[in-house]
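Anyone up for a design puzzle?
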């Protein structure tokens, strides 16, 4: 329909933000707190909607691309700081996206139910499994790179793909929610703002005998995976690809509202499913990956529903896998003063570099059975600087077009930027405790 065709940029952003990490956090929060934190997803979604409207307005204005504006006002090094930090964050988290795609495929495999065949055979199977995972990583990355260079125009096919993946997520997760039979009164109560009772309610994490004590870490993750400043920043480029004009106010608002509503609905559906099926039955720390969530739900819902959930996980993993690499490539191309369109040679080339570097790191971790924790810590350290910086750039650009943007998006963007800065302080202090 005409309405569906008019949508696009915000749905692309939603599909990128709805990665495995977002689904895992929603599942863990639902498992730990039940329905209590549904309101937080709605509140963060409202701020994200405003940020997305701001991004779309900037992208359809007569402003040049963000990093070009930054370079002209503050110098090329400032633009390189914006693009370079974001690119490094993307590469680090893209390593975990590589692994998450294969974890999602693994949840569809029946091998987990195979009988015990002895330690020797088990070791051989594990080695064979690692080889298969490495081959899968290589094949998937080569497929994405071939697609990037095989398409004359990148944006149109990517938009259609992301719409399809969001639909798969909605269907898969909603079916599981229906089977979980959530407590509707609990859902309604969870939409009323209230903080859960937790031990150690201070703002900053503390050091304990067992390590770092941070009871708010999962809730911080829930905010960060819903209110994605990087996603809203990318909306500026997507609106340019959509070729919106400054007169298309309704299109921008409807697109942002629909896209971020899809993001919030999927997150709340996953959280409610976990609350109904796992709260009080499973310890939250047992959910280390999205595969663990699927494994916990499958005995309750059966193999068919488990396959639906796994299909939703794969859609989330693949959309995030492709989308994050595009964000890094496009923004770094802009920071270097090159063509920042999705189909431009520099954006394609830098996206390929992001895919290649992250794939090599993921292959090394998979081949050695190692961990990607070090990369995640490095990425978290970069987000302390990078995410508030992106918010400040969007605020600065929005102030230049404040009469087009309107008061609500600017005020909400200021709140969102202040909130991400506060979360960055918590992250920085947590890293200090972990590394000292």
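Challenge accepted. My sequence:
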């Amino acid at each position: 329909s005409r309405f569906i065709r008019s949508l696009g940029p915000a749905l692309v952003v939603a599909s990128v933000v709805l990665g495995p990490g977002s689904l895992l956090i929603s599942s863990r929060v639902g498992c730990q707190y039940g329905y209590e934190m549904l309101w937080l997803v709605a509140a963060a979604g409202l701020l994200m909607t405003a940020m997305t409207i701001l991004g779309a307005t900037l992208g359809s204005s007569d402003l040049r691309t963000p990093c070009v504006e930054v370079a002209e006002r503050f110098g090329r090094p400032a633009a390189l700081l914006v693009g370079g930090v974001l690119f490094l964050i993307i590469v680090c988290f893209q390593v975990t996206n590589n692994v998450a795609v294969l974890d999602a495929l693994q949840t569809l495999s029946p091998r987990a139910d195979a009988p015990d065949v002895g330690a020797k055979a088990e070791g051989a199977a594990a080695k064979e499994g690692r080889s298969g995972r490495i081959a899968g990583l290589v094949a998937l990355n080569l497929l994405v790179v071939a697609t990037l260079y095989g398409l004359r125009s990148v944006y149109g096919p990517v938009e259609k793909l992301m719409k399809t993946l969001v639909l798969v997520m909605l269907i898969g997760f909603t079916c599981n929610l229906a089977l979980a039979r959530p407590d509707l009164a609990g859902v309604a109560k969870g939409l009323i703002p209230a903080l859960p009772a937790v031990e150690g309610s201070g703002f900053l994490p503390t050091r304990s005998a067992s390590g770092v004590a941070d009871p708010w870490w999962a809730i911080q993750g829930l905010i960060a995976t819903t209110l994605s400043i990087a996603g809203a920043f990318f909306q500026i480029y997507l609106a340019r690809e959509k070729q919106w004009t400054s007169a298309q106010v309704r299109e921008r608002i409807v697109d942002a509202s629909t896209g971020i509503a899809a993001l919030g609905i999927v997150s709340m559906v996953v959280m409610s499913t976990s609350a109904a099926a796992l709260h009080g039955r499973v310890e939250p720390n047992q959910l280390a990956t999205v595969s663990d969530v699927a494994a916990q739900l499958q005995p309750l819902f059966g193999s068919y529903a488990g396959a639906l959930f796994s299909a939703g996980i794969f859609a989330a993993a693949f959309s995030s896998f492709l989308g994050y690499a595009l964000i890094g490539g496009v923004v770094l191309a802009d920071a270097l003063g090159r063509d920042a369109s999705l189909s431009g040679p520099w954006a394609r080339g830098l996206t390929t570099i992001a895919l290649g570097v992250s794939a090599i790191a993921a292959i090394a971790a998979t081949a050695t059975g190692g961990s990607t924790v070090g990369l995640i810590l490095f990425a978290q350290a970069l987000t302390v600087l990078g995410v508030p910086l992106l918010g400040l750039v969007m605020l600065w650009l929005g102030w230049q077009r404040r009469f087009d943007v309107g008061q609500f998006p600017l005020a909400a963007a200021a709140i969102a930027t202040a909130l991400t800065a506060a979360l960055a302080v918590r992250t920085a202090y947590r890293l200090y405790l972990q590394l000292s």
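A detail worth pointing out: The chain has a mean pLDDT of 84.
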